Amino acid sequence: MAGYVDERRTLSDGTVVDLRSSERGSRVEVYGTDGSIVDVSADPVLTVQQVTDIAMTPGLRWNF
Questions:
Q1: Measured at the alpha carbon of residue 50, what is the angle toward residues 46 and 15, in degrees to the nearest 5?
Q2: What are the per-10-residue average pLDDT scores of the chain (64 residues)?
């Protein structure tokens, strides 16, 4: 979770969602309490909310 983020959200279950947005697009990183990580980036065609919705899809989470 290092680096610059525009916004960090901590959900009620402890999941951390980092949001970054620039003229090149959006990036969302989701850190689950079970150690799972989802990292989604997209061109500016998608909104930050759309990228966040994709990143929050339960089937995308994985662990190291």
A1: 135
A2: 80 92 88 88 88 84 62
